[in-house]
Amino acid sequence: MAVPWSVIPDYHCFGCSPHNESGLRLSFTPDGDGLAARFCLGRSFESYPGVVHGGLIGVICDEVMGNLIVLARHVPAFTVSQRTRFLTPLLIDREYRCVATLSGDGTEQPIRASADILDADGAVCATSAATYQPFTLADARHHLSLGDDEVALLSHALTTADALPPNGVRS
After folding, report:
1. pTM
2. What is the mean pLDDT of each run of 10 residues along the chain (171 residues)?
3. Which residues pair with 87 in a beta bridge?
4. Which of 30, 49, 57, 42 has its CA nearest to residue 128?
C-alpha cells in the first residue's frame, strides 16, 4: 500500500523510504485490524550480539501507527508520546510483523494508536501505545523541508490516498 509521501520523488523517511540506504525500508499492507509491516533486521541494527536494538522496535511501531493515521484519517500527525513494552528480545535475521490499530471513531484528538510486534509463530514480542497530534501542512510548514510544489503534491496525495476506514479496521 503506497503512502502519500511516495509522491515526493526523493523522500528519505528512515522508516519507509526506499531511497534511504540506511533506513528500514518498511512497506505496508492492510491488515484485518489495521495496517501491517513485515521486517527482518540484520546485524547493522543490533545492540547486544544477535539482538535487535530496542529503540528500533519503537521506531517500527511508530512508523506503522503513524502511517495508519495518514491512510485512515488523511492527516499527518506528530508523535506526542509513545510507550513500548518488550516481552521478549527480538533477534536479528528473524522475520517479524508489526500490526497497528487505531482507537476511537476518528473524531477524537489526540489520536490514539497501538501496535504489536509478532514473531513468525504469531507470539507477541513487543507492544506499543502512542498518541499523535494531527497537523496541517500549512501549519507545520516551518518544520518541514518541502518546496511549494512538494506541499501541493503531498496535500493532493493525502486527500486521494487509498483509504482505510477512520478507525483503521476493515469490516
Report:
1. 0.89
2. 81 88 93 92 96 96 95 91 97 98 85 97 98 85 74 78 55 38
3. none
4. 57
| Residue 120 CB burial class (10 angstroms; 0-12, 13-18, ≥19) | exposed
Interatomic CA distance for residues 44 and 22, integer angstroms: 9
Report how far residue 23's alpha carbon sits from residue 19's, in angstroms, rounded to the nearest whole number: 8
Cell numbers given for 72: 485512515
